[in-house]
Known about the structure:
Elements: H1 2-6, H2 12-50, H3 52-82, H4 84-91, H5 95-130, H6 133-161, H7 166-202, H8 210-236, H9 242-269, H10 275-306
Amino acid sequence: MGTSLADRAWGRESAVFRITGVISVIGGWFLTAGAAFIGAGLIVAAMHYGGQWVILLLAALTVFIIINSNRRFRKKAEEDNGDALFQTIISTQDKIRTWPLLMMYITEQQEKFMTYAEEKYRDITSAFITENSGILSKTESSLARQKTTLKNARRKETLCLRHLTREMAIEKSTWFYLSNNCCMGILYNLRRINEVCKEHIDNNFLPLPPRYTTEYEMIRTQISTLFNDTLELMRKGDTETISTLRQHCDEIKDTVSDTYHRAHDQLRDGDTSTMTVLYVYVNMLQETQEMVSSIRKYLRAFAKLRDSEFRTRPAKITMPTA
């Protein structure tokens, strides 16, 4: 700290963060020392009073932890090494050739996510209708892991962007980040739907009445079809059908909006005994509508990534003046 201040390596913008970092490191030393002291004392006390059996148990536990840690490290290393396309993009020296490879990589990762999102949407809604709390609990953990997966994929793709030409990186970065944000938005929608459904089922509240179940199953079918059409478009790379698919998103949003308003009116004027489950239902409809909006935005971003000249609306024709 003294030498950095003396040679003016720290400026006003960075000094606060650097000092905070130094204090954090020094504070970490004291925490580590305290934890090590207490932990060592507990282990020595256990060995002293427990005798040989405790020593053997601790030795077996230590071996298990070492083996399990090595196994997890090896698995992670295999996953990193197995990401051959990413390694190819990072190692290539031809910046012109980098973009087609990166577009292939982005499409592959986002296709996996869309497949995952469609599956989890069906699982969550089915579990809510059938009152299956176990599936909702598993889905909650799975969605948390998927957030980490998305963040790791985005980090890798951002590294790949640095291997593009400056002009290409500027042109594509906006649509790259928008497409990633749309995927993250869909994930948040799924997490919020799962959260309210799980809380409702865990409290053993009333199930969704049959007439609402019937109308929501029709919406579920439309959403699943939309996901599958999006996946088919991503596999073919055909941007010509995107405008039609975006229009289909608008139609689904209108359907969800009409259903939401009917449910909201029923919530305000209907039977108070179903009020709790209707709150959950209304929340599901809101998040579903937001999810469809994210898919609609994603389609435009995906098209722009593939073709910078893509237009969702026909260009205006300017009439010549006399």
